[in-house]
Amino acid sequence: MAEIKPYNTAQQKKAEVEQMFDNIAGSYDLLNRVLSFGIDTLWRRKMIRMLKTAKPERILDVATGTGDVAIEIARIINPQQIIGLDLSEKMIAEGNQKMKRLGLDKQIELVKGDSENLPFSNETFDAVTVAFGVRNFGDLERGLSEFYRVICAGGQVAILEFSKPRSVIFGSLYNLYFSKILPLIGRFTSGDMRAYTYLYESVQHFPDGQAFISHLERAGFSEIKETRLFSGICTIYSGKK
Q1: Which region holds residue 123: left if phi is over 0, alpha if psi is between -120 and 50, else beta?
Q2: Is the dihedral of CA 163, 7, 1, 216 positive or negative?
Q3: Average pLDDT, whole number, for the chain?
Q4: 3-class SS of residue 54
Q5: Per-residue pLDDT band at 115 (split at 50, 70, 90)
Q6: Looking at the predicted structure, is the pLDDT value of residue 175 above 70?
Q7: Rounded to an integer, what distance in angstroms lies between the CA atom of residue 155 and that of residue 113?
Q8: Confidence (pTM)
Q9: 75 lies in which domain range?
Q10: What is the CATH number of the domain that holds 216?
Q11: Torsions phi, psi for 163 (to 5 deg)
Q12: 62: how many CB neighbours lie within 10 A of its CB?
């Protein structure tokens, strides 16, 4: 199966993903709210609440973008340390401005980094989260193995990602919206239609459900749970080290 990349150039997928998010950084937050009708915020909160009972004190949010998950972690869990990591420097810049506006710049640290080569020591964090990010990894196995490496024994991983609806009728509406309508909206608001065409393509080729659970198991995680949301548009995967 051919590798799905944002722009299909000779560059590696990682470089194209970085370029894509740099291109859409200025309109990213607005588009997330508009394109999901605001439901994406509820999905992120549900993922974070699944971690709350474990009371993690050191949390890493991978592919943090402009820090939406990190902000909700601060509000819902309020741990001692929150670090958000992203490949895109422009997304991090947008996120830092947001943290200052919200008065969270002292509590949340945003850093530029590679999710497949995390710049942290072994067993640094009690939990790792990622929302809508693992689909963009160039090497999924390596990225999940890095999560496992930096999580402390007994710590947790929580991953929110798009998946494919099981309902034929709902799936048809979903495919129409994501393959035809969403790219047009993205083109007029961000100027990068290809970024939102890639979104649909990457979801179609991503191993969801049991296939993704198998990836988590190979990385070493156990007690893996799958929580499907909104007729299967998204799934939360959680597991322990």
Answers
A1: left
A2: negative
A3: 93
A4: coil
A5: very high
A6: yes
A7: 22
A8: 0.94
A9: 25-165+208-240
A10: 3.40.50.150
A11: -140, 180
A12: 28
